TrEMBL record, chain A:
Gene Ontology cellular-component annotations: cytoplasm; plasma membrane
Biased amino acid composition, Polar residues: 216-225, 511-520
Annotated SUPFAM superfamilies: EF-hand
Segments forming domain EH: 249-334
Cell cycle listed as a keyword: no
Residue ranges of domain EF-hand in the record: 282-317
Entry keywords, A to Z: Calcium, Coiled coil, Metal-binding
Region ranges (Disordered): 122-167, 185-242, 352-390, 419-462, 476-555
Biased segments, Basic and acidic residues type: 134-150, 226-242, 365-374
Gene: Reps2
Species in which this protein is naturally found: Sakesphorus luctuosus
Pfam families to which the protein is assigned, alphabetical: EH
Gene3D superfamilies (UniProt xref): EF-hand
Coiled-coil spans in chain: 583-621
Name of the featured protein: REPS2 protein
From TrEMBL, chain B:
Originating organism: Sakesphorus luctuosus
Keywords, ordered alphabetically: Cytoplasm, Endoplasmic reticulum, ER-Golgi transport, Golgi apparatus, Transport
Main location: cytoplasm
Domain of life: Eukaryota
Recorded family membership: Belongs to the TRAPP small subunits family. Sedlin subfamily.
Locations listed in the record: Cytoplasm, Perinuclear region; Endoplasmic reticulum; Golgi apparatus
CDD domains hit by this protein: TRAPPC2L
Protein name: Trafficking protein particle complex subunit 2-like protein
GO BP annotation list: endoplasmic reticulum to Golgi vesicle-mediated transport
Cited Pfam families: Sedlin_N
Gene3D superfamilies xref list: 3.30.450.70
GO cellular component, one term: Golgi apparatus
């Protein structure tokens, strides 16, 4: 009954493919027309798009139905030929259907209302290996086209690629019955959903589930979709999520952290981390971006989870992954801290899964879509084709990790020790002026130096530079007046020096009066200092007495008679006496300086007066001379 | 909503400049450059009084018929200059202040990054995002 239109459509098929002549044998024509009529019982020339919702995407494209907009008989026949070709093991291309092909086999033609999924026994499992790749490619091409944009399709295409083809054909007969019921469903929704189901069909245990899920309502497909996705997500997250840190990675990161900073609860400073990550030989802008991503609290330092995230990003980048724009969920410090607390990785995954899963599925999908748009998709598919094993993923990353440690072997103990010292010295709230370790160490060194200064200098003398004054003195004042302090000082060290080699008590005793005499003589030069020098002299005598005994202790051989009682006191009083002596000498020097300056002042004042007198005399002379000249 | 935002270093060269992609963007660059003189003038005028308590927000530097220019100086003499469309009368001073505060916070975050050398051009994506959020959305 359909022979007439079949014949016409056969010619149409030839023209419909844009010049491709597709000779349809009689049997083929008959068969195809039969199928076509099944598909659309009303005597319409074209089958509506919804009624062929079971069609796979690549067939759609190849058949050129996209161009036409609907699945006309020509396209339908072409599609059927393609099915036959694929079933026979030929790649799904227009060229392959030029040949004579056996009729496509549809399982449920005997019973098209049967919703049972048969075993794939009838379909050739092996032969579909080659079509797999082509199907994948086609499906990828399909998804890349902007025509049917569905957020579900990109994440699902990599998932369902391998087992897609055999089950697709299996599904086709089932969907015959679905065809009309599915009219409410959108085409796009149907196709990927379908493929998804078929993907899982290969998994033995899950097939039972799908039997239950094959309800024709829209809600249940969605629910089942989410459940499948969840299971699929867990397996894919294990296997192909590059932003998940495995246990051995984590241990490695923790060891590296310890080498930089032994305390796991403390921070790694920015400069230390910079040196460390620069060794990875990534370009600086990328390292800067990695830092931005991982330093979540923006404090310029890395905690342990932040460090793990940063390290993981470095590793991922070195393995060729593009850096994300925002930090992935699995690398957030809260997540990492939660994960690190739980020893079992599975527990961690599922715990964290149960919390964010209902809410953040959307975000995860978005992250997947983002990822799919980057170079990670071929990586993922490659990994999937490897066998969807997380072990493999871990192995792959760990083998690449082994190459990374070589670069980081520059972390010697020396640097670690240096940095750890600096870190301990560096306060948490560091000022922005000093970021380097050297500055921090310098700051540590600075405080000790000021204290000695106040001891030496007197308040008045500190404001004056005595050397300058003495130079001015010699330049300006031509008095033969020697600066008193230098002559005053030498006697004392000379006295102590002479006292050191002295062996007899008498010598020091003799020296004492001699020093006193010297002092008195020097004091005579300074009129002002009669009183003070005697006092320090007296004090000095006392200290000298103490100090005398100390040099005598050391040359014990030379000492003939020493004060045995004093010996007992000596070790105790030695240091205090030295200190006292130092203070007293300082006081003495300051007083002498004062005296010197006072003397200077008076001398200069006198000179000034004299100069004034001279000037006045000269001026009067000038005035006397002037009236004579001026007329 | 600003039309142009610029971050200028202490030595008066630009670290970051971003304007709404209209024609004649060079005009904004020129405006920012001329506004630096006004900034210096304001700094020197205030500096005599109390350097410590110098206000970071400089306020309106100068208005023209098309737009107004606002300035902000940090303690390290890094200047932020913002050009705002005059027709946008809804913008109050407080809003400008808050925008500058956000800029300053983002700038300090960039400084915290050890891979950023002070004096380099700013190439941070986070900073870009923040600035984009403050710019006028022109279709």
């Amino acid at each position: 009954m359909e022979q007439g239109p079949a014949g016409a459509s056969g010619a149409a098929a030839a023209t419909g493919t844009g010049g491709l002549l597709l000779p349809l044998s009689e049997t083929e024509q008959q068969r195809y027309s039969e199928l076509f009529s099944r598909c659309c019982p009303p005597p319409e020339a074209a089958a509506g798009g919804s009624s062929v919702g079971w069609w796979t995407l690549q067939h759609w494209e190849v058949c050129g139905a996209k161009r036409v907009g609907y699945f006309g008989p020509a396209q339908f026949y072409i599609a059927l030929k393609l099915i036959a070709a694929a079933q026979s093991g030929f790649p799904v291309r227009i060229e392959s259907i030029k040949n004579e092909l056996p009729l496509p086999r549809f399982m449920a033609l005997k019973n098209d209302t049967d919703i049972r999924y048969g075993t794939p026994a009838e379909l050739h499992g092996v032969k579909f290996q080659t079509p797999h790749s082509t199907l994948e490619k086609n499906s990828y091409k399909r998804t890349d086209e902007g025509d049917k944009q569905e957020p579900n399709s990109p994440p699902m295409s990599p998932i369902c690629s391998p087992p897609a083809s055999p089950s697709t054909y299996q599904r086709i007969p089932v969907s015959y019955g679905y065809g009309k019921a599915r009219s409410g469903l959108e085409q796009q929704h149907g196709a990927p959903y379908e493929v998804r189901h078929s993907a899982h069909q290969q998994d033995g245990p899950s097939s039972g589930n799908y039997g239950a899920k094959s309800a024709l309502t829209c809600s249940t497909p969605n629910r089942s979709l989410s459940v499948e996705r969840e299971q699929q997500d867990s397996s894919t997250h294990y296997s192909d999520d590059p932003w998940r840190i495995t246990e051995e990675q984590r241990d490695y990161y923790i060891n590296q952290f310890k080498s930089l900073q032994p305390d796991l609860n403390a921070f790694i400073s920015g400069s230390v981390a910079k040196n460390f990550f620069t060794k990875s030989k990534l370009p600086i802008p990328e390292l800067s971006h990695i830092w931005e991503l991982s330093d979540v609290d923006c404090d310029g330092a890395l905690t342990l989870p932040e460090f793990c995230a940063a390290f993981h990003l470095v590793v991922a980048r070195k393995n060729g992954y593009q850096l994300p724009e925002t930090l992935p969920e699995t690398l957030l410090p809260e997540y990492l801290q939660a994960a690190s607390l739980k020893p079992m990785r599975d527990c961690a995954l599922f715990d964290s899964y149960s919390e964010p899963l209902p809410g953040s599925q959307q975000t995860r999908d978005f992250s997947r879509t983002e990822k799919s748009s980057t170079e990670e998709v071929p990586d993922n598919s490659a990994l999937l084709q490897d066998g969807k094993k997380d072990d493999k993923q871990a192995l792959k990353v760990s083998t690449t990790l082994k190459t990374i440690p070589k670069e980081f072997q520059h972390l010697t103990v020396k640097t670690a020790a240096q940095e750890s010292n600096a870190l301990r010295a560096r306060p948490r709230s560091r000022s922005y002026s000093s970021t380097s370790i050297e500055d921090a160490m310098k700051k540590g060194e600075e405080p000790p130096t000021p204290p000695p200064r106040p001891q030496k200098s007197h308040s008045r003398a500190s404001s004056l530079d005595l050397n300058k004054i003495f130079q001015q003195n010699t330049q300006g004042v031509r008095s033969g007046w020697l600066p008193p302090p230098p002559p005053a000082l030498p006697p004392r060290p000379s006295v102590s020096q002479t006292e050191q080699p002295s062996e007899v008590d008498l010598h020091p005793q003799m020296n004492r009066p001699s020093s006193q005499a010297e002092e008195n003589s020097s004091a005579k030069k300074e009129v002002v200092l009669t009183q003070p020098p005697s006092k320090p002299a007296r004090r000095k005598l006392r200290t000298e007495a103490q100090g005398l005994d100390t040099p005598e202790v050391s040359p014990t051989i030379n000492v003939t008679s020493s004060l045995p009682a004093a010996k007992a006191h000596l070790p105790v009083q030695k240091q205090s006496s030295k200190q006292k002596r130092a203070i007293q000498t300082a006081i003495r020097k300051n007083k002498e300086a004062n005296a010197v300056l006072a003397r200077l002042n008076s001398e200069l004042q006198q000179q000034l007066k004299e100069v004034h007198k001279e000037r006045i005399a000269l001026e009067t002379q000038l005035e006397q001379l002037r009236p004579v000249t001026v007329l | 909503m600003a039309v142009c935002i610029a971050v200028i270093a202490k030595e008066n060269y630009p670290l970051y400049i971003r304007s709404v992609p209209t024609e004649n963007e060079l005009k904004f660059h020129y405006t920012v450059h001329t506004s630096l003189d006004v900034v210096d003038e304001k700094i020197s005028a205030m500096g005599k009084a109390l350097v410590d308590q110098r206000e970071l927000y400089l306020g309106l530097l100068y208005p023209t018929e098309d737009y107004k220019v606002y300035g902000y100086v940090t303690n390290s003499k890094v200047k932020f200059v913002m050009v705002v469309d005059s027709s946008n009368t809804a913008l109050r001073d407080n809003e400008i202040r808050s925008m500058f505060r956000k800029l300053h916070n983002s700038y300090t975050d960039i400084m915290c990054n050890p891979f950023y050398n002070p004096g380099d051009r700013i190439q941070s994506r986070a900073f870009d995002n923040m600035v984009n959020s403050m710019m006028m959305q022109v279709c």
